[in-house]
Amino acid sequence: MEHTPTRGYTPAPSISPGLTLADFDYALPPALVAQHPLPERSASRLLHVRPDRLDDLGFADLERLLAPGEVLVFNDTRVIKARLFGRKPSGGKAELLVERILAPRRALALVRTSHSPKPGTVFEFGEPVAACATVRGRDDDFCELDFDADVLALLDAHGHVPLPPYIAHADAPEDGARYQTVYAREPGAVAAPTAGLHFSEALLQRLGGRGVQFAHVTLHVGAGTFQPVRVERIAEHVMHREWYAIGADAAATINQAKDDGRRIVAVGTTSLRALESAAQQTAAGWRVTAGSADTRLFIVPGHEFRIVDRLLTNFHLPKSTLLMLVSAFAGLRRMRAAYAHAIAQGYRFFSYGDASLLERCTDDTP
């Protein structure tokens, strides 16, 4: 999970000056916020958002919705037990959410204490003390910390699954298994790429047997994904930074499909952001470039999509950057209608909720 951040491709978005936070608000009954996963991963519902209609389906219907040769692009990031509960030597409580591991014993973290921690502040973990961390300094909202033990090992031993704030219960053994995709392999995320939670090994085998192709990219989902947008005018928002990597094999699979005119289906907004961040203009058109970088790509209505043709995603929070992204992909008015329909039909929302398959159609305007 260690990496050296580099500056990624982040094109300036074409943001309508008239777009405000209120354009992405909606009222959600609290009962529709899914608190637990369904017993079976692929038993969730699927709303197919098409340019001319909405279809209520089951997730297993994906088998007939995907044509042989289409490429499903998965984010193979693995959620780490990023939440640590510790204390100062004086006894004051501290809660840390590790955002990024910079070196085996160094990390960036959101730190919650009674007072803002200063350089030199020490935190202890475990009872008796198993490890300590010392604040080196600040990086925006994060503290840079030096640990006296391997950070990943410490998190495995003493950390907690960093469930989103809208899930009301503490993490349980169920969450250790189900707040993780079956294909997760690269540790580094503090939130799951939730569209992938619906895939079981059996469903993946059936899709592969039908000729659907798979490609894997990595984008380590950061704590910023849960940070609220604090400005009213969308054009003033500064997107959080996340690290992604696309290997040569994945890039070759995706680019060959683009050459052949086959569709690219992003499994989740994180896969989409990685692909669109890695887009490069070539003689043949827009193609994906292999490599790794940081991205602050902010996708809002007006964005020109270069790689992704279809998007599989969950239902997102009001006023969130993810709701802005899906509105850019399928059209703002269309997504308003889709969310109103999903609420009326009792779909389950957010991380453990149901899914939607969006067809790219950005010709409607606010």
Explain how this protein is built:
The protein is α/β, with parallel strands linked by helices. It has helices at residues 62-65, 151-158, 173-178, 201-209, 248-260, 269-277, 321-330, 332-344, and strands at 45-49, 54-58, 71-75, 77-79, 83-87, 93-103, 106-112, 122-125, 131-139, 142-147, 186-189, 213-219, 242-246, 264-267, 279-282, 285-288, 291-295, 310-314, 355-359. The strands form four sheets. A nine-stranded mixed β-sheet has the order 2-1-19-18-14-3-12-13-17. α7 (321-330) packs across α8. It is globular and about 60 Å long. The two termini are 40 Å apart. The model is unreliable at 1-13 (pLDDT under 50).
| Content-based structural category | alpha/beta
Estimated helix fraction: 10-25%
Low-confidence stretches: 1-13
Question: In whole angstroms, how far apart are the ends?
Answer: 40 Å
- If you compute it from the alpha carbons, what radius of gyration comes out, rounded to the nearest whole angstrom? 20 Å
Query: Main beta sheet, described?
Result: 9 strands, mixed
Oligomeric form: single chain
> How many beta strands in the DSSP annotation?
19
Estimate the global geometry from the Cα principal axes: globular
Strand content: 25-35%
